[in-house]
Amino acid sequence: MAAKTAPAKISASYPRIVVPPPGPKAQAVIAQDKGYASPSYIKEYPLAVAGGQGAMIEDADGNRYIDWMAGIAVSSTGYNHPAVVKAVQDAAGKFLHVCGTDFYYDAFSKLCERLSKSVTGAEKRRVFLTNSGTEAVEGAVKLARHHTKRHALISFHNAFHGRSYAAMSLSSSKVKYRKNFGPMLPGVYHLPFHNPYRNTLEDCVKAAHQLFETQISPEEVAAVILEPMQGEGGYVLPSKAFLLFWRALCDEYGIVLIYDEIQTGVGRTGKMWAADVHGVEPDVILSAKGLGSGMPIGAIIAKESVMTWPRGSHGSTYGGNPVACASALATLDLVENGLAANAAKMGERLLKGLKKLQTDHPIIGDVRGQGLFIGVEFVTDRATKEPAAEFVGKLEQLAFSKGLLLLGCGKSVIRIAPPLVLAEYDVDKGLEILEACLTELED
Ligand code: PLP
Fold first, then answer.
1. Cα 332 to Cα 7, 112, 123, 361, 433, distances in angstroms
2. Residue with CA closest to ligand 1 atom 11
3. Is 158's C-beta closer than 6 angstroms to any atom of ligand 1?
4. Contact 367, 376 (CB under 8 A)
5. Residue nearest atom 10 in ligand 1 by C-alpha distance
């Protein structure tokens, strides 16, 4: 039965462009979408997906692309990993829903235990399951306020935490995410995030002290929420010292330190959590995106001493849906048994290739990354570091036309966040296409 319902496998060569995208079938999908879907969707470029395998996507017209974006860092195990597909099919054949907030089932309990034990640190963790990243952020804000009985929240410039009200209020990566949606959640303060390419740790620490001297006492702060590596804000990797500063401050004042690992977590950095890269432990980790290989699931993973909210104070009708839990359990198996290690290995290969491109192409200002979480920042001038704002859009479009899927972030950064199943071929061929695009655009 599984074989009959399994998605068709695509095994021939890629990348290949058989008709300049968008071809006629893609155009039909796009026209219908434009007719009826909300105009708020971004739709980066006219890619209409029909299938995929590993780190390859096939569009509606049979064009095949190397995928360096994984549906925005989500498709961790690729597009239809047999182990994940089987787990989803088996779970769907049993029951689709019963509500984990009110009743029990095996996959829910198992996933809570697996996630709890996936986090490094002496203290036991407890887990709340959600449908999405933004729901995990909302829940974490509620948890921190409930636990501390304080209201203020500290977030960072260029942060992105989601689109619901608390998450949007904590975000500051682009004004379009906030414009005309105010008023925002009160009590949110934004501080500089350490970006080794653009500011100094001292600047960040000074701004924090200034905030506490002039605007809000740290004794009123419920939580500091940060991405241990910023995603949407530009794939920025702060120093370990920055994380240590906030860990120490949170310890001193009893503030809950929350890492939003919705983009960085579940093996992407070569470790299960980005927190493990520097070993600076938060009190709460938030997960989503790659956790379910594309099935909607997220998690709040908190120290037992912090997850103190009582029975009935928080719940979710669909959070921890049995099919999504099965997908997450299969994903964790794969990540723990090889994919995190593959992310580390392929990440090194990619970084090496990108740094070589940087020596030949002055438009590349910075290359940074950890595992398969890599940012390439483009500048008009290496001395002034002026962002090459128009360049990223052009590069995305050109790479798309040549069979490589890229995605921008920040002001002028390409984020490279492919499926963790990426192979050497996908790295080398992708680099070749990227180089051809850079050469063409620089001419
Ligand atoms: N937090 C981070 C770091 C993210 O990158 C995102 C999504 O891009 C979110 C939160 C929101 O997640 P979702 O879109 O699942 O609500």
1. 22, 12, 21, 38, 32
2. 162
3. no
4. yes
5. 161
Q: What is the pLDDT of residue 1?
A: 34
Is the CB of 370 inside a 6 Å radius of any atom of ligand 1? no
Read off the pLDDT band of 443 (50, 70, 90): confident
pLDDT at 442: 87
Token pair belonging to 103: 């009743």
The response to whether residue 263 sits with its C-beta less than 6 Å from ligand 1 reads yes
How far from each other are the two terminal CA atoms of the chain, in whole angstroms?
54
Give me ligand 1 centre to Cα 159, in Å: 10
Ligand 1 pocket member 132 (CB < 6 A):
yes
Q: What is the pLDDT of residues 338-384, one digit of tens each?
A: 999 999 999 999 999 999 999 999 999 999 999 999 999 999 999 99
Q: Is ligand 1 within 6 A of the CB of residue 133?
A: yes
* Closest CA to ligand 1's atom 15: 133
